[in-house]
Amino acid sequence: MKLSAEQIHDIAGELICGMKVYINRDKPEYVTILDWDGMYGDTEFWEEEMERIQKEWSHFVVLEKLESWESFNIMKYFIDEVDDEKMQQVLINTLNRRSPFANFKAQVESSDFREQWFNFRQLKYEEHVRQQLEFEDIEFE
Fold it and tell me: How are strands ordered across the β-sheet holding 29-34?
């Protein structure tokens, strides 16, 4: 079983979107399900997928989104990638205020650094996925 680079890219994208990723250890297959931890709502939509995982897969690995402190660090590291000192200072100030996640998102997404941020975050999440796969002894490209 070996996950492709494209699958790792897609898994990282799913995690960014708030999904849990269930990886089949027996073949290069995965299923994504909304991460309901801390949320309220109807989970009925996902019940069929959960039953399939529990019945068909002898063992699987669950990948979850990054912890908030890890996501915060990604934002902090991104500041060093920005080649505009004024924007760097804006982002530093944003991280030191209340609601740093929402405010950082608002600042970056309305800036010239929007695409750079998305690419940077994607690469960091792909690194996270690879680390988890290594820990679980799952091969990947």
Answer: 29-34, 19-24, 60-63
**Residue reference for tokens 């997404």:** 109
Q: Do 65 and 15 form a contact (C-beta atoms < 8 A)?
A: yes
Which pTM value belongs to this model? 0.85
Which tokens is 115 given? Answer: 């695409």
- The neighbouring-strand residues paired with 68 are none
Residue 122 near residue 16, CB atoms below 8 Å: yes
pLDDT-based confidence at residue 59 (cuts at 50, 70, 90): confident
Question: What's the 3-state SS for the chain?
Answer: CEECHHHHHHHHHHHHCCEEEEEECCCCEEEEEECCCCCCCCCHHHHHHHHHHHHHCCCEEEECCCCHHHHHHHHHHHHHHCCCHHHHHHHHHHHCCCCHHHHHHHHHHCCCCHHHHHHHHHHHHHHHHHHHHHHCCCEEC
Residue 83 has a pLDDT of 95
58: pLDDT strictly greater than 80 = no
pLDDT of 32 > 90? The answer is no
Cβ(127)–Cβ(74) below 8 Å: no
